Amino acid sequence: MPIFPLPNVVFFPETYLPLHIFEPRYREMVHNASGQGDCIGMVLLKDGWEDEYVADPPIYPIGCVGRIISSHKLADGRFNIVLQGLQRCTFEEQEVSTPYRQARIIPNAQKGAPSLDIETRINLEQITQEYLTWKKAHELCQVIASGKLTDSILVHNLSAGLDLSPVEKQFLLESGHLIQQARRLIDLIRFKLADLRTAQG
User: Fold this and answer.
1) Using alpha carbons only, what angle is made at residue 124 by residues 118 and 127, rounded to the nearest 5 degrees?
2) pTM for this entry
3) Of 34 and 181, which is predicted with more confidence?
4) What are 140-154's pLDDT values in tens digits?
């Protein structure tokens, strides 16, 4: 499967990712993927990638496979696409002749129940709403308070959408199961809330 390594994007299942594709090698990747299942693996580049970007800088082994659900080719050959996150995978990179990188994928479904226990769900909702209130994101607070999101959609979209660092998001993506991911997310939000309180005296 083609892989698209980026330095600041961590992709999660059940989320959507708009991408502007402009490098020639990745234009070819999108063109080829469109005729071969429409899937691309998204992976995070490790620190120090700047010195090797033209070559093949190291990547984290765990990423997420996405399906191209929208693709618009511009007149100059660039693409605007939208990926739908499907599943976490381990990527084993292969030697290939294409200008873009490719990897063998090993599906890496999270273990355990695909839902949260009541206590973890309540704790996640409460800490997230408190944080978003500090950030004045009131509409998002209302979405969370509605209780209409499934556990997995809530956890994955908060993991992707909150202003966490790429390394923090990778830490969430590598969780062994959904409850662990939610608990890690709660801890990260608590740290950010503590920083906000300290900054405001």
Assistant:
1) 135
2) 0.91
3) 181
4) 888 888 889 999 999
The CA distance from 20 to 50, in Å, is 20
Question: Which phi and psi angles does 15 have, rounded to 5°?
Answer: -125, 170
Q: Which helix (H) or strand (E) holds 41?
A: strand 39-44
Ranges of beta strands (E only) in 45-108 are 62-73, 79-94, 102-107
- CA 16 to the chain's CA centroid: 9
Distance of alpha carbon 116 from alpha carbon 150, whole angstroms: 9
- Rounded to whole angstroms, how far apart are CA atoms 90 and 161? 22
The answer to whether 92 and 80 are in contact (CB under 8 A) is no
Alpha carbon distance 151, 16 (integer Å): 17
Look up residue 147 and give its two tokens. Answer: 């209780």
CA distances 13 to 7, 169, 200, Å, are 19, 13, 35
Q: Which of 24, 7, 27, 58 lies closest to 165 in space, CA to CA?
A: 7
Which amino acid is it at 60?
Y
The tokens for 134 are: 């500090």
Name which of 109, 92, 86 is nearest 1 in CA terms: 92
Over the stretch 86-127, which tens digit does the pLDDT of each residue have?
999 999 999 899 999 999 999 987 676 678 999 999 999 999
| Contact indicator for 3, 11 with CB cutoff of 8 Å | no
